[in-house]
Write a structure and sequence with these properties.
Helices cover 46% and strands 17% of the residues. By secondary structure, the protein is α/β, with parallel strands linked by helices. It has two domains: 149 residues, Rossmann fold; 112 residues, Rossmann fold (3-Layer(aba) Sandwich). The longest helix is centred in the first third of the chain and has 17 residues. It is globular.
Length: 270
């Protein structure tokens, strides 16, 4: 048994998609969530800046004595994951790429349709990490990436199910729809917050990278004897800037009021 918290890190609200799944499948676990709301979005920044921000965020979580870290961000998982694992060898760090790719390759095999789509930030798509991993699993797969840079700011500003989000989805996804994909990986954990609109536009099976990573997290914790069976866990949320609607959107998404669980920190000190 290990009652230290699970650390979850994202650029803003998106990682709460993964947290919601963790709360369902690991209800006894304590969770410390850090959302870098003061510097979101990461997707248009340089690789070196993304690595710097990620290093500071991991340092913060380690000061909270977390036992394992889930990087619930497609951009950071694509750009900085291996560097972070090298820099912090004493802690297990998971990303959101591998498990989503395994599911996509499995679906492609079942449907006998090897066309797989990936949407994410500009940094995620240009890095090509999802494509590389999928082709390592099945070299016959065809992977089509599409950057959707407006999706993150739309989610962060509460445009979750309105005409603005729908117009953006149509703009980004219309060409992918014509390919008749076997599945589409939501390669940014913000995107499941608008998955209904994405699904209506793309008309194929959606893979939530954050949710798949949560299931992988549970497996890793079980195999490494990290599970906590000491009672109901607690969620603490730390942010780097007090966004006007963060607590409101988070509460709607997690289905309970989290205002008293949210704390602001100066991430530049880490």
């Amino acid at each position: 048994m290990n009652d230290n918290a699970i650390g979850v890190y994202d650029t803003g609200l998106g990682g709460l998609c993964a947290v919601r799944e963790i709360l369902k499948i690991l209800p006894d676990e304590n969770i410390i969530y850090f959302g870098d709301t003061g510097r979101v979005p990461y997707g248009s920044r340089s690789y070196e800046t993304i690595k710097k921000y990620s290093r500071q965020s991991i340092n913060f979580l380690l000061k909270k004595n977390v036992k394992i870290i889930l990087i619930a961000c497609g951009t950071v998982s694509s750009v900085a994951l291996e560097d972070l694992r090298d820099e912090f060898p004493g802690v297990k760090i998971l990303g959101v790429i591998e498990s989503a790719c395994v599911k996509a390759a499995r679906i492609a095999g079942i449907k006998k349709n090897k066309k797989i789509g990936v949407i994410g930030t500009q940094a995620t798509v240009s890095r090509g990490a999802f494509e590389q991993y999928i082709r390592g699993l099945d070299s016959s797969c065809e992977v089509y990436g599409q950057a959707c840079p407006l999706f993150v700011p739309l989610v962060e500003n509460g445009h979750l199910n309105d005409e603005i989000a729908r117009l953006a989805a149509e703009k980004y996804l219309s060409k992918l729809r014509e390919l008749k994909l076997s599945s589409l990986i939501l390669g940014c954990t913000h995107y499941p917050m608008i998955k209904d609109i994405i699904g209506e536009v793309i008309k194929t099976e959606l893979i939530d990278a954050g949710a798949e990573a949560a299931y992988k997290l549970k497996q890793e914790m079980f195999e490494n004897n990290m599970l906590n069976d000491n009672g109901a866990g607690r969620l603490e949320i730390f942010i780097s800037d007090e966004g006007m609607r963060f607590s409101e959107i988070a509460a709607n998404f997690l289905n309970y009021d989290v205002k008293s669980n949210i704390f602001k920190i100066d991430i530049e000190n880490y």
